[in-house]
Amino acid sequence: MMDVAEFRRRGKEMVDYIADYLENIEQRPVYPDVEPGYLRNLIPSEAPVEPEDYNDIIKDVERVIMPGITHWHSPHFYAYFAAASSYPAMLADMLCGAIGCIGFSWAASPACTELETVMLDWLGKMLKLPECFIAGTSGRGGGVIQGTASEATLIALLAARCKVINRMRASNPQLSESEIFSKLVSYTSIYSHSSVERAALIGGVTMKKVSTDKNFAVRGETLKKMIEEDKAAGLIPFFVCATLGTTPSCAFDRITELGPICNEENIWMHVDAAYAGSAFICPEFRPLLNGIEFADSFNFNPHKWLLINFDLMSFVTMFPHGPIKRLTCRGCRWSPFSSFVLQHWQIPLGRRFRSLKMWFVFRTYGIQGLQTYIRKHVSLAKEFEKMVLADENFEICAEVIMGLVCFRLKGSNEINQKLLERITKLREIHLVPCQLEERFILRFAICARTTELRHIQRAWSHIKKLAYEILQESSHCLKELFCQYIPVDTQ
């Protein structure tokens, strides 16, 4: 059994191991070379009866765990979106685990509830959100930390569903809840994250996909037409999820157009800015958030781009009573602290002291430090865009606004799929694809805190080398095929 003396010693060893891991992470292959089921054969089929030596456990981290790790914080990782990481956040996570409170209510741990409320206000002010989203001391608006954007979207949809049912029954008491429920319809972009559609599935309502413009953004005119058609068919539009920074291409739905329509139609507009939201702390990107004043709720993930380790998602609403009314099992009198029960804003009842990570990171880096970090990632993405544009064999497929570059080899989907397959197989860098207008696209996202220009240059050289090999092979195959059909001159 580990006593406090050994814990002190082992804890220091673990900090050294973590520091060594992160300091040397780029020496490891970014993507694992294992097959599904690899791990089961490396460990016993049952738990040990007798305690094992801690040294053996630590040795098995390298033998069992590390071979199956995709190294998200490697500077060779360009897949998905950034997963934030910083030393202050790790230290705060350690303290969170040590305190170990289950902060479902104010009384369960006052500091857990109060710090979270204040940190969400700090964050809202960093983004210059409208006052109606700030809790302050009056508790009129406010936020809560969720695990992921998936949870936030579901909470917003459930609150919107509750609101429209109550409104419809108030105006027509003869309507049953089931009658209203069957006619509810929600909307989101064809390029929104799959979690938005999943929220509708869990919420038991219809969700319709809205087509986009040439920049892959939802426009007001398109949404308005769909709403009018659905109302004429006897349906009840009640919820719109707009995306600022879509997963495939980092496109921005036009919430300055969508918001007034939603307000006029009494439709709840939720804004999902999971990745891009962090950048709004920079004045040059804040205009992309214009129109948020029309929204009923808003979420983004500091655990993507604000140096706060997973999991920490910010969800704010100007109607905090909405989630509470929908998710509470007992009466809850609204008050910012004494009766403010955060369990009513989320799916699980228990919650960790995650706001410690925000407090540590915001104070360690300051707003200027966080802005510098985001701007560096954006500048690296712009450098990669220049490299792609300088090569006539490649093309850029979407506007580069933040830290994501969508590009491809000019040609068929098949040749781009082959390029990605080779990149993945060699494991020097890691990318993932997307589909835009049925075209197979490669996504290059600046992700790691330690990514520098030299890593971008190395990645581009690697991509070009593999691309040219594939183009030469294709050219050779076409030449052979062409020769087969040339008539042989027998004279």
Automatic annotation (TrEMBL):
InterPro entries documented for this protein: Aromatic_deC, PyrdxlP-dep_de-COase, PyrdxlP-dep_Trfase, PyrdxlP-dep_Trfase_major, PyrdxlP-dep_Trfase_small
Cofactors that this protein relies on: pyridoxal 5'-phosphate
Keywords recorded for this protein, A-Z: Catecholamine biosynthesis, Decarboxylase, Lyase, Pyridoxal phosphate
Pfam family, one: Pyridoxal_deC
Gene Ontology molecular function: any one: pyridoxal phosphate binding
Residue(s) carrying N6-(pyridoxal phosphate)lysine: K304
Family (UniProt): Belongs to the group II decarboxylase family.
The protein's name in its UniProt record: Aromatic-L-amino-acid decarboxylase
Originating organism: Takifugu rubripes
Gene designation: ddc
